[in-house]
Design a protein that fits this description.
mainly alpha, MetI-like fold, 2 domains, transport, cell membrane
């Protein structure tokens, strides 16, 4: 198990290094990408831009710039006579603050959005899929899968404004979505995010319902399930203890990736509902040409996906020991 874990971690670190290098090349040395001019502003003279480039170190060879950026993540670095403590992701061109501090300020919003959405779509989606598999071919199965098809066909940029129009601006049943820290007011935290949660859950629940149903139906037809059924084991034990455990693998894979994507910033959801999370920060950084923030968000997303895959692999290893041999 230890060797399996070490292989996965080393592979994840190699992937992150490749992503970091390619992202650095894309954002900092691509044609037309003048970091010093973006940091200085549109009104700066060529002389001032050259001075800023020297202060930032972007007039150095590319390989040296990348090594300094990489070293700053682990040991910190000096930028324009200012020390940036590790893990240093640079300073924002827009607000001149450390990029890490800017992301950490936004992260609780994205984390809250992720937690609520995951609880809803995992509970409803898996439950609906299990019910549909148990009642295969019957009315409840057809109704549940019909909902899954309709829900999966929705788009956040369409469904979000529709929900806002119905529940906020027309009927005034709910207030405009907003973020309140959980420890400040848990009730206001939940009520302020319920509409974004529901919007994400409607779309994502459909995928979990269909995946759970297909996986459960497949496992229920396996030989070992028929064997324990022939030995007289009760339907509840067969369904939960054996069939559901066998169907967990694809669900764990999808869940790990979904959590990673949500944690890296649900850009469309946060933009539609005007939530100041990492996703909205990413969108604003593109509009402001804020390269350090853009690169940091890409690295955050990549790290979240790699970590999620490692966690999913570990879960697989416990579910199916044969995975450890891969």
């Amino acid at each position: 198990m230890l060797a399996f874990l070490v292989r996965r971690i080393l592979g994840g670190l190699a992937i992150l290094f490749i992503i970091c290098a390619s992202t650095f090349m894309l954002f900092y040395i691509a044609p037309g990408s003048n970091v010093a001019r973006l940091a200085c502003g549109k009104t700066c003279s060529p002389e001032l831009i050259a001075a800023v480039a020297h202060q930032m170190g972007v007039d150095k060879p590319v390989w040296q710039q990348f090594l300094e950026y990489l070293g700053g993540i682990f040991a910190g670095r000096d930028i324009s006579d200012t020390h940036c403590a590790a893990p240093c992701l640079g300073y924002s061109f827009h607000n001149r603050r450390p990029v890490l501090d800017t992301i950490l300020d936004r992260l609780p919003v994205t984390l809250s959005l992720t937690i609520g959405a995951v609880v809803i779509f995992l509970t409803v989606g898996v439950g609906l899929g299990m019910l549909a598999a148990l009642r295969k071919g019957k009315l409840s199965d057809k109704v549940g899968m019909g909902f899954a098809v309709v829900g999966g066909a929705q788009q956040i940029f369409v469904l979000g404004p529709f929900l806002l129009f119905i529940f906020v601006y027309s009927t005034h049943i709910m207030n405009v979505p907003s973020y309140t820290a959980f420890f400040t007011d848990p009730v206001k935290w939940a009520t302020g995010l319920i509409l974004p949660w529901v919007c994400l859950a409607i779309i994502t629940t459909a995928y979990y319902a269909r995946l759970t149903r297909s996986s459960m139906v497949e496992v229920l037809n396996e030989d070992y399930v028929r064997t324990v059924r022939a030995k007289g084991m009760g339907p509840a034990n067969i369904y939960v203890k054996h069939a559901f455990r066998g169907a967990m693998s694809p669900i764990a894979t999808l869940l790990g990736l979904d959590i990673a994507v949500l944690l890296s910033g649900a850009i469309i959801t946060e933009t539609v509902f005007n939530l100041p999370g990492v996703g909205q920060l990413a969108a604003n950084s593109v509009l402001d040409s804020d390269l350090p923030v853009m690169m940091a968000v890409v690295l955050l997303a990549a790290t979240a996906v790699v970590v999620a895959n490692i966690v999913v692999d570990i879960i697989y290893a416990f579910i199916d020991p044969r995975v450890r041999l891969g």
